[in-house]
Design goal:
Elements lengths: L6 E4 L5 E4 L3 E5 L17 E9 L4 E7 L3 E8 L1 E6 L4 E5 L2 E6 L4 E6 L7 E8 L9 E6 L2 H4 L3 E6 L7 E2 L5 E9 L3 E4 L5 E13 L2 E4 L3 E4 L4 E17 L10
Parallel strand pairs: 13-14
Antiparallel strand pairs: 1-19, 2-3, 3-4, 4-11, 5-10, 6-9, 6-11, 7-8, 7-10, 9-12, 13-15, 15-20, 16-20, 17-18, 17-19, 17-20
Length: 246
Amino acid sequence: MKDNIMIEQRFANQRGFSDHGWLKARFTFSFANYWDPKQIGFSDLLVINDDQIASGRGFGTHPHKNMEIFSYVLEGALEHRDSMGNGSIIKAGDIQLMSAGSGVTHSEFNPSSTQKTHSLQIWIVPNEENTKPTYQQHHIPNELKRGKLQLIISPDGENNSLYIRQDIKIYSGLFDGEEQEIFNIPENRYVYLHVARGSLKINDLIFNAGDGARIRHEQQLHFNHGQNAEVLLFDMRPIETNCPYM
């Protein structure tokens, strides 16, 4: 990456891919058997997995430790159970944040017998280790995201966002037709963009479903010309990677 490239696009077809039959997954960053030394997260953002889960299937009980794990359901639902005693259904439009802290086990399944689940699983490195595990879930109505970027996760839980143990703010937006938004990037911050579905222009660059971008040294982002677009924006510390496994 050259220093003068301020918006470094990563296209959907450049991601890793895994097909287990019941699970079809695209990996923005290195994960499981997909390894690319140039794609080991960005700042404190470590994982964006784009999962298509068949009806009645899912991830059995497994452990996590010292990771902020964020689930974003785009289509269908996920049934969540964990060792903290939580049991819930996460539906399209819901967000869930589990702080694994000192250790937690959980499972996630598609509860439908007929429909697939389309969801994003996102991992963020925490700024504290071995804390008490916590669980949060919240529904974000589409009208709050319509034509703008809505804060959904933040370090202090401002504006009814979910609280995360890291210096990161996460926004979600829906853009279609003439809807447009300008995001002013705070000074000395990095941004990562992920387009979950649809297409739109950002600073005159075209983004389609599954595309993303590392953004450094920009001041503003202009969102427009959306076609049923849903986008996530991560406002982060200006470091290149915080991968705990390196």
